[in-house]
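Let's sit down with a protein and look at its sequence and fold side by side. Please make up or recall a protein chain and show it to me in full. Label the sequence line and the structure token line clearly, so we can match residues to local backbone shapes. Go ahead whenever you are ready, and we will take it from there.
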Amino acid sequence: MKSLFFVTTVYFLLSFNAHATDIDNGRTLHAENCLACHTTDKYTSDLRKVQDLAALTSRVKRCDFSLGTQWFDEDIADVVAYLNKDFYKFK
């Protein structure tokens, strides 16, 4: 009985923490917030400062803080996934 409880608890915790990114949510959040400050040209410029996925995540977090949007971690991950898919294409 204890092992069943343990397995059930582990399964619940793993499924609770797992978040598949939602590109459509990322696109929507981006359109509603990020485009108020800049266009998407910033992402495709040869002079862009973001050079990897970690830097992209950091930049999105900084923008979230600056705008006061108070996105959840899942929302930040969704925006990063959207930007990476459509613009940056980091591995």
